[in-house]
Amino acid sequence: MFAKGTNKGFLGWMIFGIAMLALPLFASSATVRIFVFANYIAIFAISWDVLSGRTGYISFGHPFLIGIGGYTTALLTHHLDMPLYITIPAAVLVTMIAGTLFFLPALRIRGTYFALVTLAFMELMYGLVQVVAPDITGGTRGLTGLPSIVTGAVSNYYLSFGVMFTLGLAMWLLIRTRLGTALGSIGMNEEAVRACGLNTTKLKLFAFTLSAMIAGLGGAMYIHYLGSIAPRGLFDVSFLFTILVACLLGGAGTITGPIMGAFFLTLLLEFLRPYIPGSERYLIYGVATLVLYVLQPRGIHRLIQITVNWFVEGFMRRKST
Amino acid sequence: MLIQILLPGLLLSGLYALIAIGFTMIFSVGRVLNLGYGAFIMFGGYIYYQSAQILGLGKVPSFVIATAAGVLLGLIVYVILIRKLKGDAIAIEISTLIFAIVTQAAIIVVFSPSPKSMWPLIPGVLRVGDVIVTYNLVVAAVTSWVVLAALFLFIGKTHIGRAIRAVSMDPKGAVISGIDPDRINLIIWGLSGGLGAMAGIFLATYTQLAPAMWVAPLIIAVAVVIVGGIGSILGGLVAAHVIGMLETITTTLIAAELRGVATMLLIILVLIIAPKGLFGKAEL
Fold first, then answer.
1. Are A106 and B272 in contact (CB under 8 A)?
2. Which one of B98, B222, B257 has the shortest CB-CB distance to A289?
3. Is residue A167 predicted with pLDDT exceeding 80?
4. What residues form DSSP beta bridges with B125?
5. Top-confidence residue, A238 or A42
6. What's the number of CA atoms in the CB half-sphere (13 Å) around residue B180?
7. So what's the pLDDT on residue A92?
8. Which chain B residue is nearest to residue A238, measuring alpha carbons?
9. CA–CA gap between residue A56 and residue A192 (Å, rounded)
10. Taking every pair of C-alpha atoms in chain A, what is the biggest distance, in angstroms?
11. Whole-number Å distance between alpha carbons of A280 and A275
């Protein structure tokens, strides 16, 4: 059912899972909180990768989907005092509907134009949230004092890690099935996929809904973790940038790559903090990203692959001589 | 009431046309979106600020310095990034977006994150009946018309202009005719950087200088290209006026905060209903 190399990959997932489960035993609560953040970025990166990394429909509007999920649950809990086990599924559902809305332009346009429409969706949302019914949405200042799902750094860590790990593994398995291959082929040549007798519209709709589902779930949980929501910082280019760069730096289209990218970026940014406290940090971070992207567009994932292959080959050669 | 919308709308449209033209050129010739275009705009604004308000070099020399710096930045981006990526449209879009964010970070490091207000290029206001517009906006619009006319002549009448048109129509055909598309692209990126920087000076005097100021003009430029259609400078001009008028109408008649919302709706509608734009000839 799954493609070759799946067993070897499982080993990697298991090592990763065990290491992450053991982390709170050694790390301080501040470090654990950094990892919570990395987990959420990884969830968003997975969501982006399922849609854009595989099908080649580059989305600049993922903050829009995440924001829809976040706002749905925020409004329901803040105004109607609904419990979280209702509002979070509701948020996921609303985001999936919004994902279908996203899908409409993709029927007619692709490539660059699709990216731009999704960017327009995000900016539209940023404007609308502030202007339309600010007494309900909280306007520019947003909403604060939202209930949290669990309290404490360690419980939040396990919650976010559990969700991230499950989603990541599920998506990683998905891209190894025939369905995943079909989605990946859309990114290479959509006409050819259609010529093979596959319904690309259905496939794309599937990818969009799935991506929206993950974004909605991640967004809803993220804002309950933060306890507040505001349009700035959410429908924002720099938030989009974090997601995009995590995916690209890690290696788009591989699921594991974006997770690595998300961790790499978050940890890089945090561990630079003691040495470079000011805004120079973002400059270094941006330049490093740009250089890495131009040198190896397929990301950390590819670099690791190359290194592993190099070691394995060297080992083999020594054995044969 | 009518003139209250028409006059500021017309002037704002002129500014928008200037903002969009550099972006449209790269898109028409190289078929790539330069999402770092906003960085040229921001760069121009800040260089002008540094030169005119901090170093006190005077307005005209500062204007020339800022424009020249923009040309230089455009050339550098082309040589360092674009040439390396060899026409891979998605890689170019993403790397130019990262470039814009890097520029924003650099501006924050050098100039601090707080917004700065710029002196108007020419102080004072123009009164037409009971409508008041600043001379600054008038200068911006007039400059924009002059620049656009010059550009039309340059592209229509000169030898390089013909080569630019040839590359935009068919790069392979152009190579066969002895044109070096790489050199043409270099020229276009330089021009685009200069035009962007120039637009940035006017935009910054119209609004203010801030490290996040690159997003709004980028979206305006994108909107102009989408509504006007690819490869059509005339279409872009018309689209700039449609968007300028639309924004003036929404801000004066409905609410000032809805400025961007109307433009976004227009982009989404045009892309869904007529993806080729109003005047576009090219296929997507």
1. no
2. B98
3. yes
4. B134
5. A42
6. 4
7. 92
8. B101
9. 14
10. 76
11. 10
**Would you say residue B76 has pLDDT above 80?**
yes
Q: Which amino acid is at A310?
A: W
CATH number, domain of A193, equals 1.10.3470
A273 within domain boundaries? yes
| Number of domains into which chain A is organized | 1
Q: Is B132 helix (H, G, I), strand (E, B) or coil?
A: strand
Range of the domain at A303: 6-18+29-320
**In the structure, what pLDDT confidence band is assigned to residue B280 with cuts at 50, 70 and 90?**
low
Contact B94 A248 (CB under 8 A): yes
Reply yes or no on whether the pLDDT at B87 is more than 80. no
Residue B131: what are its φ and ψ, rounded to 5°? -95, 135
Backbone Cα Rg of chain A: 20
Query: Does the pLDDT of residue B282 top 60, yes or no?
Result: no
If you search the block for the tokens 């997507």, which residue do you land on?
B284
A237–B215: do the CB atoms touch at under 8 Å? Answer: yes
SS3 for B152?
helix
A80 occurs within a structural domain: yes
B193 residue type, one letter: G
Contact B102 A286 (CB under 8 A): yes
State the DSSP H helix or E strand holding residue B126, giving kind and residue range, or none if neither.
strand B125-128
Span A230-268, pLDDT tens digits:
887 788 777 888 888 888 888 888 888 889 889 988 888
Residue A302: half-sphere exposure toward Cβ, Cα within 13 Å: 13
Of A93, A13, A69, A28, whose CA–CA distance to A256 is shortest?
A13
Question: Model ipTM?
Answer: 0.77
In a domain, A23, yes or no: no
At residue A205, what is the residue type?
L
Output the CA torsion B39→B41→B42→B43 (10° steps): 80
